[in-house]
Amino acid sequence: MSFKLKKGKKKVHLIVGARPNFMKMAPLYKEFTKYDKEFDVKLIHTGQHYDERMSKFFFDDLQMPKPDEYLEVGSGTHGQQTAKIMERYEEVLLKDKPDLIIVAGDVNSTSACAIDAVKLHIPVAHLEAGLRSFARSMPEEINRILTDAISDYLLTPSTDGDENLLAEGVPKEKIFFVGNIMIDSLMQYQDRAKRSDILNRINIDPTQDYALITLHRPSNVDNKNGLLTILNAFEEISRSINLIFPIHPRTTKQIQAFDLEDKVKKMKNLHLIPPVGYYDFLKLQMDAKFILTDSGGIQEESTYFGVPCLTLRPNTERPITITEGTNILVKLNTNDIINEAQKILSGNIKKGSIPKYWDGNTAKRIVEIFRVK
Ligand code: UD1
Ligand code: UDP
User: Fold this and answer.
1) Which CATH superfamily is domain 10-180+358-370 in?
2) Domain boundaries, given as residue ranges, for the chain
3) What does residue 300 show for φ and ψ, rounded to 5 degrees?
4) For the chain, N or C: smaller number of CB within 10 Å?
5) Residue ranges lining ligand 2, Cβ < 6 Å
6) Among residues 317, 304, 301, 295, which one has the least CA distance to residue 352?
């Protein structure tokens, strides 16, 4: 281990910034606060996501307190956003001097805060370490590689993560297979989610089948041809089944920029809705006939629910959702997307199982690592 944590009460920063961070940090926050004689935990929100529906909704649903620090960085180019996070979080670090920071996933807030801390010789733990898509064209892959390279504790969700890190020469003492922390939140709130009345609120007859859609990868939505390829497939699939599409702000912006609003409005069975809160989204996932997505986390949650997932990407950093779960990769091609959806509609459904340590106890395993024995 490159750093030994000091004995005695430790100050820990948990970093959140974007939507997929909240459901990963909430269980950890709750677990650390059970040991308040051993840890002084602070929640730091960079403000990378700031709309109510991309941030506050999750603090409410996941029963998290207001962040101790809110850095208000907002949107920008990668350089602008990363620089702002680094500048503002460094000030917090210099003032607060934590003994450990924990970052999650692969967003810009993850790598920016990790770089800040490591240069001040503050130990960094990376939650969801070791995942690799092996596609450096994705900004998230760069964030994963950077963060793993400088972190002291690499907390992996699945054993492919351990294998990737070992292959990159990371010493095995730094790697901890702790499991998938998103599943801690999912298991905690799935009963509450079952009671969500989201289908009524969006006027969908709950006895009818629907497919659930999310889309936000730059490679899918930031160029008009790519986005049209996907929308054309949705148009065809919506002739057979209702489609519910809680739309990410990046995608809303791009549909407007490419003048595709009319095309989308004309699809009578495509129900475009603003992003929804955590309980509502879990409900939409568990009751869906299938899911069409390019999200990272939704590949995992659908595997847990046993709901078929068509991932509209050429690769995934979460291969276990394919080898063990219900996930299938689909190329960016209108016919391929339609064909895979039709297979499901005609009853050809991929079955899966739940991977090891996706069991609701990941936060416990993590906090044990940092407790002084
Ligand atoms: C970010 C992450 C991505 C993650 C996704 C989860 C990076 C590089 N990308 O992508 O890995 O899968 O979050 O949702 O960190 N916007 C709003 N309101 C908000 C937030 C964003 O309107 O609250 C709009 C802005 O126009 C912004 C655009 O969405 O420019 C993109 O936001 P950004 O945080 O840069 O990237 P995401 O696409 O959200
Ligand atoms: N999610 C949500 N409401 C939505 C869309 C997604 O609560 O309208 C949740 C989803 O259940 C999962 C997480 O957001 O827990 C995934 O985040 P996202 O797809 O934005 O990011 P990624 O995982 O691709 O980085």
Assistant:
1) Glycogen Phosphorylase B; (3.40.50.2000)
2) 10-180+358-370, 192-345
3) -80, -45
4) C
5) 19-20, 23, 182, 214, 246, 275-276, 278, 281, 295-298, 301
6) 304
